[in-house]
Amino acid sequence: MATMKDVARLAGVSTSTVSHVINNNRFVSQLVRDKILSAVAELNYSPSAVARSLKAKETRTIGMLLTSSNNPFYAEVVRGVEESCYERGYSLILCNTEGNTERMGSSLETLLQRRVDGLILMCNDRNPISEVLFCHYPNLPVVMMDWAPFNGVCDTIQDNSLIGGKLATEYLISRGYHRIACITGPQDNTQARRRLQGYQQAMENAGLIAPESYQIFSNFEFSGGLEAMQQLLTLPEPPKAIFTCNDAMAVGVYLAINQAGLKVGQDIAVIGYDDIELAKFMSPPLTTIHQPTDALGKLAIDTLLQRLEKQITEPRTLELTPELVERDSVGSC
Questions:
Q1: DSSP collapsed to 3 states, the chain
Q2: Over the stretch 101-159, which tens digit does the pLDDT of each residue have?
């Protein structure tokens, strides 16, 4: 691989002159410039991005740690992050933790070795690695998305899950449903608990009973929705409406209902959460609680860059407002 010294030797100039031409930071005569550019082309020389970043003390690279999941919601958020990075001239290094503490530590170490300018963490569960991160790298800009509260100093984006859970359940109640079940995520997941709490509050406010058998902790995956719905259908008095706390599990719920010879929207109402792209293509199209995935990614990058540019100094909590999207999976009871 050609070096700057090789270019200088071929062009018959000093390496500093080659550097001035490549970085365009000092006047060089057109004759000398042409010689250097010709040598660059002949040697197929590419300046080292790493070397330039070390000199500038920035890499224009953002790191992102993501929990492994079949949930398309995560993929859509990552797409928004990637697009925002590209628009702002940054590169994104994405690491999938597979929900494994050891792998997360290794991935975090890799990102720090790459000298990323900032980090976006989007993981389901609280992880001790986060405490180590903030102890050893207190000045590294970090934005947390979809993670449990912890003691680190960083910016946090929350989706107002409790409000979203209430909104979904209140909508089912407004359509005349009383026997309403809730399928939520893992018991140790903050968003799962908050969406369940929203369901519980809405049921209590309406004077409705929410039996424990109607409240199921699952895994936020397709399979979790299928298994949870199959369990609900075996009850002596199955529910007539299901609040599924993400759209991925709603896919599994649809399958279980269809396998039982029932129809979504007619025999059993289903409402989801996230409004992933797939939701409007399901049959029938899924009523759900909207989260703006592209806007979420843009907000994470904007917040990170504001901190990099010293526009903000104190940690902030940014809250998204959930919105109901009505489609055809909820009829009237």
A1: CCCHHHHHHHHCCCHHHHHHHHHCCCCCCHHHHHHHHHHHHHHCCCCCHHHHHHHHCCCCEEEEEECCCCCHHHHHHHHHHHHHHHHCCCEEEEEECCCCHHHHHHHHHHHHHCCCCEEEEECCCCCHHHHHHHHHCCCCCEEEECCCCCCCCCEEEECCHHHHHHHHHHHHHHCCCCCEEEEECCCCCHHHHHHHHHHHHHHHHCCCCCCHHHEEECCCCHHHHHHHHHHHHCCCCCCCEEEECCHHHHHHHHHHHHHCCCCECCCEEEEEEECCHHHHHCCCCCEEEECCHHHHHHHHHHHHHHHHCCCCCCCCEEECCCEEECCCCCCCC
A2: 777 778 888 888 888 999 998 876 555 555 556 556 667 888 888 655 555 567 888 88
